[in-house]
Amino acid sequence: MKGFRQLAVLFFLLLSYPVFGENGQHPMSEIERSVTQHLSISEDWVKKDLDSALIHALEAKKHFAELTSAELKMRILNNLGDIYRSKGELATALNYYLRSKSMIDEAIVKQPKDIQLQLLKSDVRLRIGTLYLQLQNYDKSLFYYESALSILEKVGTKAPKADLALRKLKIYNNIAAVFIQQQDYETALIYFRNALELNHAVNDETYESSILNNIGICYLEKNERDLASHYFQKSLKLRKKAGDKQGCAQVLNNIGKNEVYKGNFELASSYFEQALTLSREIGSKESALITLQSLSTLKDTMGDYREALRFYRQYKLLNDSIFNTESRTAIASLEEAHKRENEKKKYEADRLKSQFTTLALVATLVLLLLAALLLIIVMRSRVKNSRLQQEKLTLEQKNLDLMHKTLQENLEFKERELVANALFLLKNNELIARIKDTLLKAKSSFTRENQLVIQEIITELRASQHTSGWDEFERHFTQVHSQFYQALQEKFPNLTSNEMKLCAFLRLNMSTKDISAITNQSVNSITVARSRLRKKLNIDGEDVHLINFLLSL
Length: 553
Description:
Helix content: over 70%
CATH superfamily of the domain at 1-202: Tetratricopeptide repeat domain
Largest sheet: none
Strand content: under 5%
């Protein structure tokens, strides 16, 4: 069930984003009409065929530099971000969203009272929050959702009631998705029902179908199968009516999960295969990813291990293409670049302001120069030299602060990357170990010929475990926490390499169960090793926590 929850988050995000047209202040040019037409077609195809949607989005983007409408430019960027997010190219999607965010923030500086710009500001933060929800970064996701909601609260009654209701219901829908990941289903249901109530003002069946499906997921996790089936069927009916293939794939996958819990494995398999066919038709990697894992788990439960392994390999290949280290690194780099760009713009604005002040002061000094030529020349020279020296010192200090901040951020990034790699190894080893154990238990019940096939599969699974990854992990850990290793070796030179590795895992605040899964040792062995380690580290009594002790080094 936990695996289903982690992947289900990718599909809480199917509510349509708002479509913005021109504000009617001037007639549309031929180029604007063409761009608007391509965008409308692209937005209509997002849930049906991502490749077709991308073709029209790129056609609209060809005229980006020629457009004068900031809102139309933002719409192009947001549409491209939505398409690449649905295709699983998250770094590319984030790049478009951040460009849109910067453009909106700059426009608001010039027009702070423009309500439409405030609504766009909320929309792009909703999109960025949605992307982080797909990455399962729930803290950042909630930050952007709450930021979007705060902007809408400040707008208040200045915007049309339907526009506010539309945006709020989507934010509530996605906030509820975060609570589902935290297994707080009652709170999630409160948000979903609030979203459903807001939809009465919008009266849109697309939004209603998405919320109904998400309510069904809550009841699925609460083990209320009949209620879950009721909401899934209502959602599926609306999505079939709208021709929403992506939405239908999502609901079919959820219905399949519900049938698995009921024990109807053949029926569940049929629903999963329908969902997989639709996902591949529209090119949605996220939808296919969920369904492939569901099929792999189901076939394993049914004892069809060859099919389980086939679907698992497809899932693994697709999962790596979406959530690989390079993709996460690219996303982190985009975040840092965007942050530095904002800091650079702020610094430039401060510098221009400082220059303006300086010029005003120089003008004043020139007026004084007319009254007392010789004296003022000498005084101005001294003041100018003093100011330049002070500005030089200030600039040097800012550069030092920026360098320190950059180094700190790089260290934090490497720390997050290290934890992410460790968690990846953990999940990979857990899944392979589970499949391997299942095959070993079932091996004796097969014929000798089939036992040979099973043994080949077990051998292949063992070979696939990332044994070479430990050296890479230790190398990265040493780079990030070089002082930690040095302090350990200086204070406790008698520690073995295995004890040093255990210290590294504990330094990352990993549990005994997680360490057991990564190292392929029993929980009892890890517990004994921890006890021996406490003795070697001279930690007496239970008052001193082992992890806190290591964190203090």
